[in-house]
Each structure stands twice: as C-alpha cells, then as structure tokens.
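User: structure tokens for Gfo/Idh/MocA family oxidoreductase, please.
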Amino acid sequence: MRQLSNHLKFNIGIVGAGEFAEFAAKAFLKINGIHIVGVTDINEASGRKMAVAVNAKFHNNITDLLTDDSIDLVYIATPPYLHFRQSEMAFRAGKHVICEKPAALRTIEAETLAAYAKENNLLYVVNLMQRYNPLYAIVKTIIDEKWLGDFVHGFFENYASDEKLIPEHWFWDEEKSGGIFIEHGVHFFDMFSGWLGEGELISSFEIQRPGVEEKIIDRVQADVLYQDGPVNFYHGFNQPKLLDRQELRLQFDRGDITLYEWIPVKIRLHGLLKVQQVEKLKSLFPGCKIEVHSDDSTHKKVRGKFRDIDFDSLITMESGDIADKMFRYEQLVTSMLEDQLNWIKDPSQVRKIDDTNAVESLRMAEEATKRAAVFAPKSPKGHF
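Assistant: Done. Predicted tokens:
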C-alpha cells in the first residue's frame, strides 16, 4: 500500500454522485486536509456537476478513477448491488474504502472484502454512522450502568416516505437493493447490537403492496431476541414525505427511553431515578426539560418483578429538537470519516465501527430477508 507523503493531506475519490454522496462530500470537506480529487457516475451530468462543486476531476468510469495514484481512499455511494464489485476493484487498486450501506447483497461477499482489506492493511468500513451519535453513547451508558434497571423490550418503527421512489426505482428491485432489511435495516440491527449485544432472529415477514402489477415489498418486520429481551423492527415505505417519522423505544423495568427520527436528535426518558441520576441527566443534557411527577423529599419504594425498587423521583426528561436532524446527520458523517482517518494514521487506534459492523449487520439483515414469510393483502375495494 502507498504511504501518504503528507499526513495532513488526504485525497478522496467518489464513486456515485447521487443526492447523499453530494451531502457526504460537503461533510468530508469540513475536515482539514481532506480533498476530493475525483468523481465518477454513470450519469455524466450528475457526475460533472458534483465534480465542479467539489473542485475535482470527472472520470468517465470507475476504472479510470482508480488509475489516479493521488487518490488514497474511495468513497462508494452507488446502489447496493454494485458495492461488492466496486469495493473489490478499489482494494485491488490499493485504495482504502468507505462504502455506503450495505456492504454487499450477501454476507459472504462482505466477509471476502473484510478479509482482503485486513490482509493488505487497507481500511474497510461501511458508513453505519449511528454509533457516532452522542445520544447513542448516552443510551449505552444508561443501559450498561442500569440507571433504569434491566432491559425488557424494544422497538424501532420506521414510517418512511416513498414519494421519490417511483415504481422503476432500484430500491424496489431486490436484485439491486437486497430488499428493505438489507438496504435500510442494517443501520438499526447494528445500533441495537451495540447496545444489547448479539441478537438472534426469531421471525420476520414482508408485506407486498396491493393494487400494483409489480411485486413491490413496502413493509417488513423482524423480531430479534437479545440476551435480556426482544426487539421489534418495523420498516414501511408507503406514505408522503410530510408524514415521514421514526421512533425507537427501549423499555426497562424502571422506565423507558424514546428516541425520535432515524438519525436520533430528540430523547425522552421516563422513569424511577435516584437524585444523583437526575443530576447526571442535567449535566448530560444542559437546558433539558424535566418534569417531576413525585417529589424526592422522602425516600420511596415500589415493587416490580417480585423485588423492591428504591427511587427518589418519578421523572420525565426531554431534550433535543427534530429540526436539528440534518445538522446532526452531517456531524455523524464527519465524525465517522475522522475516526477512520485516525486509524489509517495509527492502526493501533480502536474505531467505533469497522469491518465487523459491516459484516454482522448484513448477516442479520440477510437472514431476516431469507426467512421472511411474504404476505400479499388483497387490493383495497376503494378509498375515501
């Protein structure tokens, strides 16, 4: 592998010039020393537009881009069915790789990429940026330190828009996207495994959209059992953008945590806490809103799971603003790249995400897809 001549300068080539690649490129360029020097896309107009925007050279194809010896890292933001082949090509050209999710359409392909990168001392990571969210780390602390007791149940509900997903879009073609679990669900399988440890898929199903000639799966659900309890994952792509929303909840035996948006920016915590825990919340979330449902002037005791539960206050804490979602999104992308670059400079650094996340999130998603029962509801007779 080629050594960087100047550790303060790092050159990136971008494969795929779609809407998210444009967003990610702007985030990358906020890091000192980062330069985007090459862009390629099968849509020449889109590729040239991005190249101009980031002051890079447009390449007619990925093969041409990979011959540029000045490129240190390739960022791949193409449809999922291209990820394996394009990542493999980048590795064989001696480039580091950051790929958008999923790693590939099959787990064995992701394993092959991870093994090749390791053998050749190259960076390989899929942009599962959720673990860079400050809320992710805080929730992890609450779980590990058992502020709310033991975990008992969780859910993630993703009510997403399909306004831009025309019937011919590659998203609906499982040969190109892998299906909803693989194309989208990997983010959340990875997030929950980070919080709760390795999970076991219990069941999954898919629902086919009624009233259309094409086979379009627009709703899926998976049930995963973790060490301490189950989590239900639901994804639906079937409504206007104005109604797009996501909600994630973790239920414990002393309360619950709710996160809002698929890039969580708002948190609500409701539970039985000690005084020192309430003070920690105030320090973690300056300016948060805390409603006390019972005062802490006297020590209290209730029972659950045949045990006494000691607490000082029943509180509800809220913090964050959904309007901050895009700003938080940019922060996560930037933090992800900085973390990976630090590893390239010093491989002894421990990254928040690495090739293991790419492989294991895909493994769960692929299993959920393979085992899913498919339901095809009858077409509605009418609507109002």
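User: Anything notable?

Assistant: Residues 66 and 93 are 6 Å apart (CA to CA).
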